[in-house]
Amino acid sequence: MSAQNQAENIIKNDDLSAYWMPFTPNKAFKDNPRLIDRAEGLYYYTTDGRKILDGFAGLWCSNLGHGHPKITEAIQDQAAKLDYVTGFNFAHPQAFELAHIIQEQFPGQLNHVFFTNSGSEAVDTALKVALAYHRTNGEASRTRLIGRVGGYHGVGFGGISVGGMVNNRKMFGSLLSGVDHMPFPYDASKDAFSKGEATSDPLVYLKPFEEMIALHDESTIAAVIVEPMIGSNGVFLPPKGYLQALRAITKKHGILLIFDEVITAFGRLGQANGASYFGVEPDMCTFAKGVNNGAVPMGGVVVSSDIYSCFMEKSAPGIELFHGYTYSSHPLATAAGLAAQAVYKEEAVYDQVSARSPFFEEAIHSLKGEPYVEDIRNMGFAAGITIERRGDAVGARAFDVFMKCYELGVMVRSNGDNLALSPILTSDETVLETLVETVRKALRTVA
Ligand code: PMP
After folding, report:
1. Where along the sequence do coiled-coil regions lie (predicted)?
2. Ligand 1 mutation target, pool 23, 165, 232, most atoms within 8 A of CB
3. pLDDT in tens, 145-164
4. In terms of domains, do 248 and 103 share one?
5. What is the pTM of this model?
6. Residue of 225, 262, 269 to mutate, ligand 1, most atoms within 8 A of C-beta
7. Atom of ligand 1 nearest to the CA of 154
8. Domain end: 329, 346, 363, which one?
9. Is residue 81 domain-resident?
10. What letters, b where the CB count within 10 A reaches 16 and e where it falls short, cover 238-247?
11. Do 101 and 179 lie in a common domain?
12. pLDDT tens digits for 189-241?
C-alpha cells in the first residue's frame, strides 16, 4: 500500500490516536479533523479540496508565504550537497554567513549568534548563557531569573518557569526555583483599544520589579526576560516608555535583559526586530520562526559582545560553553535561512510591512463595536482581539469565532479569550481586508 493510501485508510477508519497532537484538544479534533494537504503562497489547500487563506503566517513563522521558490530550491540544493554535519568541532561555511547576516540586523553590540532548533531552545539557551556568564564573570551569586505574568517563552522547563501562562505551568510541578514574575504590563480598563503601545503609566508595572530587586538584592539576580510585544498570549503592547525604563533599571543593577524576539524578529513589526523598533538594546535576543520562514526548524540567540568576550577571555581553556544541539546550525535550516534573508532584503519586506501597517491598523480597529469585541490591539502585522467570554467557559467563544473563520476560508488563531491575526508579511491591502472582513462575518455569525 502506498504511504498516501495508508494515510487515507487510517483517516477513513478514524484510527487517529497514534499521533498525539501538540496544544490541541485531541478528542475533539479527531471527531472533526482539519487536514491540510499542501500550501502555496498565501493559501493552504485541504485534503477535501478547500482553499484557505493563511491569516496567521503558519504559526507566526511563514512570513514570506508558503513554498517560496527560492527557499524551496535552496533546501533541495543543500540536501543534495551536504545534508548534515555536526556543529561540534566542525562547521559549514554558510553557518558563519547566516550568523553574520542575522547579527547585522540587531542593534549595537548584539553581534554573536548561537543556533538552536526552536524558540523554546533559544529561550533555554539564553537563560543558561545568562547564568553561565555571571559565573564566568566572577558573580556566581547571580542566579535568580525574572519573567512576567502572561509571558510566553516556549515549553522547555526554563521557558515555562519564566513564562507566565498558568495552563502551561500548572501540570508540571514546581519548575525552576529562584524565579519571580513582574506584573502583566497592560490594564484593559485604561488601555483597551489602544493602537500600538498601551497608554497607561509604565512605572506602575516596574515598581514591583524594583521592589523585587530590593527584596532579593541585585547581587542575586541574573536576568530578566520579556517579549517586547506579548504575542502568544494575545498581542499586548506594554505602555510607551516601559521597555526603555526596564533597560535603565536592569543596567543600573547589573541584571541582563533578554528580549524574546521569537515572534518579533524578522519583520513582524515592520522592522528587523523589536529591539530596533523600540530603540532599546538588550543583552540578548532570542529568535526563531521567521529566520528561515519556518521551512526547517531553526532558532537562536543573539548575544552582546560583552557577554561573548567574557566567555572567550575568562573561561578555562577548551570549550567555553558546555551547551549545544545535534542540529545546531543544521545545513538545511541554514540554507533556508540564507534564502529567506535574501528575500527579506531583495523585496524590502520589512518596509512593505511598515508601509501597510497603518492600513491594517485601521481595518482591524474597524471591528470595534462588532458583537463580543471587548478590546483590540495591534502593532505591525500582528493583532489581538479579546472576545467576550461565554459564561465561565474560558476561550469557548473565541474558539467558535476561530472555527467560523476556518469555515469561511481563513485561518487565524485563538488562545484563551483572544483571537489573533498574524498576516503573511507580503499580504497586500486586498488580502488584509479579506482577513478582517472574514473575522467580522464570523463574529456576526457566531452572534
Ligand atoms: N518564545 C516566544 C515569544 C514565542 O512566541 C514562541 C512560540 N510561539 C516560543 C518562544 C517558542 O518557540 P517554539 O514553539 O519554536 O519552541
Report:
1. none
2. 232
3. 999 999 999 999 999 999 99
4. yes
5. 0.98
6. 262
7. 11
8. 346
9. yes
10. bbbebbebbb
11. yes
12. 999 999 999 999 999 999 999 999 999 999 999 999 999 999 999 999 999 99
Q: Tell me, what DSSP letter sits at residue 162? A: H
CA distances from 78 to 188, 335, 352, 392, 410 (A): 49, 6, 29, 52, 33
What CATH number did the domain enclosing 267 receive? Answer: 3.40.640.10
Q: Please work out whether the CB of residue 230 comes within 6 Å of at least one atom of ligand 1.
A: no
Work out which ligand 1 atom sits closest to the CA atom of 286: 1
Task: Identify whether residues 295 and 265 lie together within a single domain.
Answer: yes
Q: Is 263 in the pocket of ligand 1 (CB under 6 A)?
A: yes
Indicate whether residue 288 lines ligand 1 (CB < 6 A): yes
C-alpha to C-alpha distance for 109 and 128, rounded to whole angstroms: 19
ipTM: 0.99
Kindly tell me if the per-residue pLDDT of 13 is higher than 80. no
Element of type H or E holding 312: helix 305-314
Residue-range definition of the domain harbouring residue 387: 34-67+348-446
Relative orientation angle of helices 331-346 and 93-104, to the nearest 10 degrees: 40
Same domain, 175 and 316: yes
